[in-house]
Design brief:
The chain has 193 residues and is mainly alpha-helical. The protein has helices at 7-14, 18-25, 44-54, 65-69, 79-83, 88-99, 108-130, 137-156, 158-168, 172-192, and strands spanning 4-5, 33-36, 39-43. A 3-stranded antiparallel sheet has the order 1-3-2. Among the domains are: 1-70; 137-192, no CATH class. Helix 9 runs antiparallel to helix 10 (172-192). The protein has 10 helices and 3 strands. It starts with a strand and ends with a helix.
């Protein structure tokens, strides 16, 4: 453990407000927090590394030059933190991410960009569904089942309708023409709705 700083001292080091550091302590700096004598302090070296890795890049970001060029891998999540996750799924995600090689784990800004991208894609699909330009998978399955049942019923109705005519015919060419006419009629009726 390195030098411990109060939130105000850390804010002066980074050139940001005390409130910014306080909000970061609950999220992106959580792994650097040390409680000593009832006070929450920040491990300077780990805090600076986490700040540089997990701060969203924008024009106002207070990121050191070394942080801009550093590996974008987030700091390891302690095993105790994974055990205290609210759901087993969250713990499984943490375990899967921590099992990845260092160069495969994206930083916070990249992860947030992906999250925003997929949220936008989901909103787009929901808007298209609301305008009825696209259908849900369940709706398409129901319609496909209904159509398949109509095709089956239409084709099975041919047999009782033409069986007496087929029995009366002796020429195979005439039987083929009769069956072809009946199938075309049934398929035309299905196509017309």
């Amino acid at each position: 453990m390195g030098e411990l700083l109060t939130p105000a001292q850390f804010a002066r080091v980074k050139g940001v407000s005390r409130q910014t550091v306080s909000s970061a302590m609950d999220s992106r700096l959580a792994a650097a927090i040390v409680t000593k004598a009832g006070r929450r302090l920040i491990d300077r070296s780990l805090g600076l590394e986490l700040w540089d890795r997990n701060t969203r890049r924008n024009n106002n970001a207070k990121i050191s030059e070394g942080g801009r060029e550093a590996d974008r891998r987030p700091a390891d999540v302690p095993r105790s933190a994974a055990a205290s996750m609210p759901t087993a799924e969250a713990a499984a995600v943490v375990a899967a991410v921590m099992a990845l090689p260092d160069d495969r784990i994206p930083g916070r800004d990249i992860s947030e960009e992906r999250k925003l991208h997929y949220q936008a894609e989901l909103a787009k699909v929901q808007a298209l569904q609301a305008r009825e330009e696209v259908a849900s998978v369940e709706q398409m399955k129901r319609e496909a089942f209904t159509l398949a049942r109509a095709v089956r019923d239409g084709l099975l109705a041919i047999v009782p309708r033409v069986s007496a005519d087929v029995a009366a015919l002796s020429n195979t060419f005439e039987i083929e023409q009769l069956l072809e006419r009946e199938l075309m009629t049934a398929l035309r009726m299905l196509a017309d709705g």
